[in-house]
Design a protein that fits this description.
Blueprint (H helix, E strand, L loop, with lengths): L8 H13 L3 H6 L5 H11 L5 H7 L2 H4 L5 H6 L4 E2 L5 H8 L8 H9 L6 E5 L5 E6 L2 H4 E3 L7 E2 L1 E3 L8 H6 L2 H4 L2 H8 L5 E2 L4 E3 L4 E3 L7 E2 L20 H12 L6 E3 L4 E3 L10 H8 L14 H12 L30 H4 L4 H4 L29 H13 L3 H13 L1
Parallel strand pairs: 1-5
Antiparallel strand pairs: 2-3, 4-6, 7-10, 8-9, 11-12
Helix pairs in contact: 3-14, 13-14, 15-19, 18-19
C-alpha cells in the first residue's frame, strides 16, 4: 500500500486546488442571513471568542499541534468534519492510502477548518500561527460515516472520546507543572473539571483542589428545562458565559459573587453572542433510540414502574422528566441535597447552589456513563443505585425499568 504524504506532488496539488476552490464551511455559514438559531450554529461551531489568548498565547498549543499526527489526534478524541474535506482526501481515506502518521496532514486539516471545535490559522508558508477552540469541541461529535472519528457533525451530542486533559498535557506550560499535569491527565476521556481553574486573560486562577472531573453532558433536548447544568447554577446562557470566558479562555467578562469569580475583559466577545448561541442550542432535538434497541413490552411495564411503584416520577416530573423548575420561586432552581440522592457531595459544594438538579432524562441510550461523576457505568447500575436506597425491586422489575430508560 502506498501512503500519501503532504509532500507528495499529486496530493499537494489536489489539496492546493481544494483550498483555492472551496470556501471553508465556517465562511459559508457565517455569511448566511438566517434566523438567530442559524447565527447561533455558526457561533457554536466556529466562534472562538478570541480564546486564542489562552490556547495560543498562554498554552502555546500552536507550537505543539505541528508535531501531532492525525492518528494521535483521533486517539485523543478530536473529530473530523467530512463535509470540510475535498474529494481527493475522502477518496484517499476510503482507499486507506492517506498517511495518518504525517503531522503535516494535521496542519492541512486545520487549514481546511475540518477539525471539529478547533480553529487554526495557517500562514502562506504553511506555518500554524494560532489555535483556538469552540463550543463544538466538547459538545459535538461525528457519525463515523467515513471512518472512525471522521463523518458528519452531530451537534449537541457529547464527545465521549475527547480527552481534554491529555490535550492540555501537551502544552509546554502544563508539561512544566508536574502537579497540574498529573491532575488533568487523571480526568480521562469524556470528562472535564470546570471547577478546577479559570483563565482571566492572563493567568490560570486556581479554584479548587483536588480536581473532581465531571462527565461532559450532551446539550440536546434542553428547551424548557430552565437550569441545565448538574448543579443548576443558572440558565444555559449563564453557563455559556462561565465556560466561554473562564474555561475556553474567551475575551469577555464573567462575574458571579456566589462563587467568588470576577473576570473583566473589554471588549466583551462572549456576551453579545449568547442570545443567538442559546437559540441554536435550544433547537437541538433529542435523538430517537435506534430501532430495535429496546424491548417495547418491557419498556411499557418499566414506564408504569417509573411512574408508580418505583416512585421515580416524584422527581423526574412532567414531559421534561425533571422538577428543577418546580421550586417556590420561578427564578430559583429546585436542587436536591447530595445526601438525599446518594451522590458525591464535594462537587456540589464547589457550585453556587450546593446541590444537584434532577436530570432531565433524554437519549440515555446515547451517553453512558451516568450521574455527574460517571459513577454508574450503565443503566443497570443506575437502577441498582436507587434500588439500594429502598426501592426493593425484583430482578424482573429492574430489567423492565432499564428497558424504559433505554426508550427515552
Amino acid at each position: 500500500m502506498r501512503l500519501i504524504h503532504v509532500g507528495s506532488f499529486t496530493y499537494a496539488l489536489a489539496l492546493a486546488c481544494a483550498l483555492a476552490g472551496l470556501a471553508p464551511a465556517s465562511s459559508v455559514t457565517t455569511q448566511a442571513n438566517g434566523s438567530d438559531a442559524s447565527k447561533g450554529r455558526a457561533i457554536f461551531r466556529y466562534d472562538t471568542f478570541d480564546d486564542e489568548q489562552l490556547w495560543t498565547t498562554f498554552l502555546r498549543m500552536h507550537e505543539v499541534l505541528p508535531t501531532v499526527d492525525p492518528k494521535t489526534a483521533l486517539e485523543v478524541g478530536l473529530k473530523v468534519d467530512v463535509n470540510a474535506l475535498p474529494r481527493s482526501v475522502i477518496a484517499a481515506l476510503r482507499a486507506d492510502t492517506l498517511d495518518l502518521t504525517d503531522p503535516a496532514i494535521t496542519i492541512a486539516l486545520l487549514r481546511l477548518d475540518a477539525i471539529v471545535g478547533v480553529r487554526g490559522r495557517v500562514d502562506d508558508a504553511g506555518q500554524l500561527t494560532s489555535v483556538g477552540i469552540t463550543c463544538a469541541l466538547c459538545h459535538s461529535t461525528v457519525d463515523d460515516s467515513l471512518t472512525t472519528g471522521i463523518g458528519h457533525r452531530l451537534d449537541g451530542w457529547v464527545n465521549r472520546e475527547l480527552n481534554v486533559g491529555k490535550i492540555l498535557s501537551l502544552s509546554p506550560v502544563v508539561d512544566d507543572d508536574a502537579a497540574l499535569k498529573s491532575e488533568v491527565l487523571a480526568w480521562g476521556p469524556g470528562r472535564y473539571d470546570p471547577r478546577h481553574h479559570a483563565f482571566d486573560g492572563m493567568n490560570l486562577i486556581p479554584l479548587h483542589s483536588p480536581s473532581l472531573p465531571v462527565v461532559i453532558p450532551p446539550i440536546y433536548g434542553l428547551r424548557g428545562v430552565g437550569f441545565e447544568t448538574y448543579t443548576a447554577d443558572g440558565p444555559i446562557s449563564y453557563w455559556n458565559s462561565y465556560v466561554g470566558v473562564g474555561q475556553m479562555g474567551g475575551h469577555g467578562t464573567f462575574i458571579d459573587p456566589r462563587i467568588g469569580l470576577v473576570i473583566r475583559q473589554t471588549p466583551d466577545r462572549v456576551t453579545p453572542q449568547l442570545d443567538d448561541l442559546l437559540a441554536y442550542q435550544l433547537s437541538l432535538e433529542t435523538p430517537e433510540p435506534p430501532r430495535g434497541s429496546f424491548d417495547r413490552q418491557a419498556a411499557n411495564r418499566g414506564r408504569r414502574l417509573f411512574r408508580n411503584e418505583a416512585g421515580c416520577a416524584s422527581c423526574h416530573q412532567g414531559p421534561l422528566l425533571t422538577d428543577v423548575m418546580s421550586g417556590p420561586r420561578s427564578r430559583e432552581p429546585l436542587v436536591h441535597d447530595p445526601n438525599d440522592v446518594g451522590t458525591e457531595r464535594e462537587y456540589a459544594r464547589r457550585s453556587a447552589t450546593g446541590g444537584y438538579r434532577t436530570t432531565p432524562l433524554r437519549a440515555l441510550w446515547q451517553h453512558p456513563p451516568y450521574f455527574h461523576d460517571g459513577s454508574a457505568p450503565d443503566l443497570p447500575a443506575v437502577v441498582e443505585h436507587y434500588d439500594r436506597r429502598g426501592l426493593n425491586l425484583t430482578p424482573e422489575q429492574k430489567a423492565d425499568l432499564v428497558e424504559y430508560l433505554k426508550s427515552l
